[in-house]
Write a structure and sequence with these properties.
Number of strands: 5
Number of helices: 6
Helix content: 40-55%
CATH topology: Aminopeptidase
CATH class: Alpha Beta
Radius of gyration: 15 Å
Strand content: 15-25%
Number of domains: 1
Structural class: alpha+beta
Largest sheet: 5 strands, mixed
Distance between the termini: 22 Å
């Protein structure tokens, strides 16, 4: 596996992180939550970037960051890699990094959600020890973005 440097986000990372947040929300589909909420592509990217700059400045969690969920679970959100960087182990390195962070903080398990049908992400998470624990299907979500629902995955830390 290639070695990567994983570090805390800085304000000058906001543009790339905004892209990652939007892409992660799309999952394996061409549209996602942010596309529905802010239809104009430039406005969408600018909006998410502003939210991230503010979150980074305050050092508070935002989409693309990890945060605690009661009782003691570590929530993993918005893992995305650029297409040209895929297949090099970056996704696995990111997941292992956040799982290690959860362990260091004393959490007993990690949780995440992914869109049903995102097989590549599901395989990545399963290799890291996650298993599907629940599914929520919704016809409105399927009609809006072409995804039948969301699966919850959990992993002991």
């Amino acid at each position: 596996m290639t070695e990567f440097v994983i570090r805390p986000a800085r304000e000058d990372d906001a543009s790339l992180l905004a892209w990652a947040v939007i892409e992660a929300a799309r999952s394996h589909r061409p549209r996602g939550f942010w596309d529905l909420w802010v239809p104009d592509a430039e406005a969408r990217l600018a909006f998410v970037e502003r939210l991230l700059v503010e979150a980074i400045a305050r050092a508070t969690p935002f989409f693309g960051c990890m945060h605690e969920t009661p009782p003691g679970a570590w929530l993993v959100e918005s893992v995305a890699t650029r297409p040209e960087a895929r297949g090099q182990g970056l996704g696995a390195a990111l997941v292992e990094h956040v799982l290690g962070d959860g362990r260091r903080r004393g959490h007993s398990d990690a949780k995440l959600s992914l869109m049903i049908g995102n097989s590549a992400a599901q395989r990545l998470y399963e290799r890291a020890g996650f298993a599907i624990t629940a599914e929520k299907r919704d016809a409105a979500l399927d009609a809006a973005i072409g995804c039948p629902g969301v699966a919850q995955m959990s992993c002991p830390l």
